[in-house]
Amino acid sequence: SLVVLFGATAGAYGAKLGSDERELILLVWQVVDLHSKKVGTLHKSLVKADNLDLSDQCHEVSGLTPEGLGKAEPLDRVLQQFSQLVSSDLKVLGKSSYTLCSDGQLLIRQVLHPETSKKNFLLSDCFYSFYDLRKEFHTCYPSSATVKDQTIKTMAEYLGLGTDETEEDFGVWQVKTMVAIIFSMLSESCNHIFTEPETVKYKYETGPCSKSETVDSETVIRARGLPWQSSDQDIARFFKGLNIAKGGVALCLNAQGRRNGEALVRFVNSEQRDLALERHKHHMGSRYIEVYKATGEEFLKIAGGTSNEVAQFLSKENQVIIRMRGLPFTATQEDVLGFLGPECPVTGGKEGLLFVKYPDGRPTGDAFVLFSCEEYAQNALKKHKEILGKRYIELFRSTAAEVQQVVLNRYMSTPLIPTLPTPIIPVIPPPYTIATGSIRDCVRLRGLPYTAGIDDILEFMGDATADIKPHGVHMVLNQQGRPSGDAFIQMKSADKAFMVAQKCHKKMMKDRYVEVFQCSGEEMNFVLMGGTLNRSGLSPPPCKLPCLSPPAYAAFQTAAVIPAEAALYQPQALLPTTRTPQASAAAPPTVTYYPAQAAQLYMNYTAYYPSPPVSPTTVGYIAAPPGAVAAAATATHTPILPQPGALVRMQGLPYNTGMKEILSFFQGYQYAPDDYNGLIQLSDQARSVLQAPKEWVCL
Length: 699
Description:
It is found in: Nucleus. By secondary structure, the protein is α+β, with helices and mostly antiparallel strands. About 25% of the residues lie in helices and about 25% in strands. The protein is built from 21 helices and 31 strands. Strands 1, 2, 3, 4, 5, 6 and 7 form a seven-stranded mixed beta sheet that branches. Strands 10-11-9-13-12 form a five-stranded antiparallel beta sheet, sandwiched between helices. Helix 6 packs across helix 7. The model is unreliable at about 410-430, about 540-625, about 630-635, about 635-640, about 675-680 and about 685-695 (pLDDT under 50).
């Protein structure tokens, strides 16, 4: 038996059903016995929505009113009545089982499943399997219109059935016509058999992904704007009703190993992906989520793994993964199992633990744990911030993709997501410098398409490009090295900047309008260094100076090239001046560096992400580039030992450590004498640059 089902929401109708997150307000259904070709009673039930404000289209098409819907039952009670009435009709027809049949997939996948998931009640099993009448009709009549272009009306017209919708109430005509279409398909001339229903997955299946897999780009999307604490299960719930591929949720991490609010999701086919794109700007809690197309290559970059240890750890399928942070470096597997206790047994005992280590084998204080069920995982999460040894331990939900990203990141000793662009070379002599001061001779472009380049900006500016200073276009990058949607342009005068802001404000670039504001060089530098500029004024960046690049990206020649962020400041900022009888010479002028391939200046723009409690930093020791040290030595005439390795850095010192304790620590080793000039305590400014608290540098 089939139960022919039709529904409508308070918003969009037809091909856009469910795309606006509006609630269900109408259900109409009828039981059909495929063998005897008998039908049960036709039922129509209004549904009381939380928001009774109907769209104009809904009011015009359905004729329903808020007053009438206010007297209806809520969705959970309507679904209970649906089950009871269907069971009664089946008994009358002498049947016991049935499958739903709907006009397309939107009602089941895009309306019922997402709405019930948000309202926290479960759908009965019958809603996880259904026939798509459009697909069945096209199978039966291959010469008809494509599945995407089918409607109840076009199918009825193809069969020569009556199409006067005004004869019946809204919903009733649709169900009766669907039943007539089904009977035509069952006729002797067609003899259609309903054999392969559409299915909806009950739950998301976790699992590893190999880099050798082939991922179809037509099945992948990028979700942006996710809450920091969201897990793969939360994302699967957001896409409830759509079938996500096994292990198809990959949470993205930034270069520091923290979740950046994005995820790549892989679906079982392109049809599911297209439905997912219709959920653009749907809500997860109070946040709206942006959904865009992505590629299979991007998915494999995040989710793919090659480590045998990780593959073995993730080989146990359908496990709940918990991440532990802050473990003592001496913690053993027995210590972790004892900490978790018997109330949350780990899958496979010691085999269900994976400690994260640096490439040299040192522990990082992170570990991943497998649990066989949600109950055990919840018990483990209750131990969040309990004490192990002398440290409190943080526990968070995690994913298979995060395991691969974090562990492989440690093994590779470089971030999976690069934070800097391609290597840069100096331009000598330096004729162009970054603007400073309060003169408002710059403009800020906000809301640029992420695909926009310098050529697009110049085309957008039109005739005003003649008034741009050479090398005056600065694209603002986020912490992943990608365009942030902002750019700054240095104009030849404040008047020119004012004219551009007036002429180009809210002008369209591609499919987006771009806001253009006049600003000063000082304001531009604030934003380029990680601060914010809005109607409330300037908010300073999270630190006064940008952080130096990790070793993997600091492979510069000592004599000629230093990173752009170092070039923006006088070399004295890198290392403080030590006590020396010689007078310090005047510092040489700052050199500005430009990319090798374009006239675009890459600033070390630090996007200030709040530290979420989900992913600790993955960058350990950060060294000053040798070119920066050499520049500091030249500027201050400080004798720097030329031998490699002569400069060492101490991390983890107690805050009350003095010179005497450090000298005692290095007893037996020869350090630079000269009244202990070799000891340099880092100032707050230099500490910001070197990104490490409580440190000394010894020569």
